[in-house]
User: Which sequence fits this backbone?
């Protein structure tokens, strides 16, 4: 289901918004029924030829603004945007690499490439709702497939990290689908583009404030700047104070502490569930080491983050400075 902000903005322009169906395919069935009953005309948002032509103007602008571009990274949902950009760019310069990016929750373009035609693809819930298309458009696919050089599939964690990266470094609010290209760069799958002039298309900023908050928290957790862990402290006067004093010495900021009483754990210790904010992944590792050295057994419990692996730090602004933003 589309975020509330998308629905409200469409309504603000006078549109009558009908929200039905769990997937785009089911919603299309509802739309076809309305068309048949009322004699209206259906315009596919990612597969109509004129929609694809309109997307092509993005490619034209890229070539006008960055004529010496080497590669362009484009998010893929229904494939209309990448089809338009690919045709326009390859017409002007066939050597420019066109790289598509999908969410692992809905890799429908990759499935179409493997099958040689659009096919229904099992999908999962994703923060990149704009890419949540179980079957790419037939027109868009057959137009784009001979021009797309590579397709990258990124994780939900990297999409969250990309939204946070764009917000912090570029001062722009970007929805999950729009930040998929940045997610591909942060994932390390585009290292072969290092040193090349690369354009990453940011193609959407429609994200609910509440969803943005959750995405930011997940991005912070992915980069180990928000850490949740369990530990135990002596159940005696001053036991908790010793722990908080040791934690304060590390420079970490305590966001939340929940204490479980001895009857739950033992009669000598109290279990703590702690959430802290750190400056970076390196700082997080230093905090864990220092607390362990002071005798506190730390059990990291970041959802979706492997505690055994230090998350790769976000690319610096300098490392991504060679990309143009649209």
Assistant:
């Amino acid at each position: 289901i589309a975020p509330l902000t998308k629905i409200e903005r469409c309504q603000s322009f006078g549109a009558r918004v009908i929200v039905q169906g769990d997937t785009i395919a089911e919603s299309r069935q509802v739309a076809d029924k309305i068309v048949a009953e009322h004699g209206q005309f259906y315009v596919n948002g990612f597969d109509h030829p004129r929609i694809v032509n309109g997307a092509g103007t993005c490619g034209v602008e890229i070539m006008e603004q960055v004529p010496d571009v080497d590669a362009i990274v484009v998010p893929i949902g229904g494939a209309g945007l990448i089809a338009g950009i690919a045709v326009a760019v390859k017409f002007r310069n066939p050597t420019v690499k066109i790289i598509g990016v999908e969410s692992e929750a809905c890799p429908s373009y990759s499935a179409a490439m493997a099958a040689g035609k659009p096919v229904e693809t099992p999908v999962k819930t994703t923060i990149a709702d704009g890419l949540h298309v179980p079957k790419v458009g037939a027109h868009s696919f057959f137009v784009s497939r001979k021009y797309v050089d590579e397709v990258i599939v990124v994780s939900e964690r990297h999409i969250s990290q990309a939204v946070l990266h764009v917000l912090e470094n570029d001062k722009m609010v970007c929805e999950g689908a729009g930040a998929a290209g940045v997610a591909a760069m942060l994932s390390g799958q585009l290292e072969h583009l290092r040193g090349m002039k690369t354009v990453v298309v940011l193609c959407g900023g429609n994200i609910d404030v509440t969803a943005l908050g959750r995405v930011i928290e997940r991005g912070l957790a992915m980069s180990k700047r928000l850490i949740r862990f369990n530990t135990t402290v002596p159940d005696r006067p001053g036991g908790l104070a010793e722990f908080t004093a040791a934690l304060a010495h590390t420079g970490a900021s305590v966001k939340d502490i929940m204490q479980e009483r001895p009857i739950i754990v033992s009669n000598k210790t109290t279990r703590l569930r702690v959430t802290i904010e750190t400056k970076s992944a390196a700082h997080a590792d230093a905090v864990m080491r220092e607390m362990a050295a002071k005798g506190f057994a730390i059990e990291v419990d970041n959802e979706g983050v492997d505690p055994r692996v230090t998350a790769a730090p976000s690319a610096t602004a300098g490392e991504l400075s060679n990309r143009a933003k649209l």
